[in-house]
């Protein structure tokens, strides 16, 4: 589904770049809320935080700037 959306926006960019840019802007606006709603739904379905992180391709722990000193 996401690949089809990306393909469609890419096609649109060739003929209607302003419309494609607007679509990308709307997608960027919707993403944080969509992600939060999806995580909440997954957790409500008793999916573990670790499984959610894995599905989101988020590392279990991220190094902080202090570890790179």
Describe this structure in words.
It is a single chain. This protein is mainly α. The protein has a domain at 32-56. Helices cover 71% and strands 0% of the residues. It has helices at residues 2-15, 17-44, 49-55. The longest helix has 28 residues, at 17-44. The model has no long low-confidence stretch (mean pLDDT 89).
Task: Sum this structure up briefly.
This protein is an all-alpha fold and 69 residues long. Helix content is 71%, strand content 0%. The protein starts with a helix and ends in a 14-residue tail after the last helix.
For this entry, give a set of tags.
mainly alpha, 71% helix, 69 residues, 0% strand, elongated
Query: How many E-type strands?
Result: 0
Shape: elongated
Strand content: under 5%
First and last CA, distance: 42 Å
- The helicity comes to over 70%
Oligomer: single chain
Q: In terms of per-residue confidence, which ranges show pLDDT below 50 for 5 or more consecutive residues?
A: none
Order of helices and strands: HHH
Give the helices and strands, then pairings.
Layout: H1 2-15, H2 17-44, H3 49-55
Helix pairs in contact: 1-2
């Amino acid at each position: 589904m996401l690949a089809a959306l990306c393909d469609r926006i890419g096609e649109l960019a060739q003929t209607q770049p302003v419309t494609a840019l607007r679509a990308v802007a709307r997608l960027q606006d919707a993403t944080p809320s969509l992600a939060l709603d999806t995580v909440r739904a997954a957790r409500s379905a008793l999916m573990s935080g670790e499984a959610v992180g894995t599905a989101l391709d988020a590392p279990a722990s991220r190094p902080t700037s202090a570890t790179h000193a």
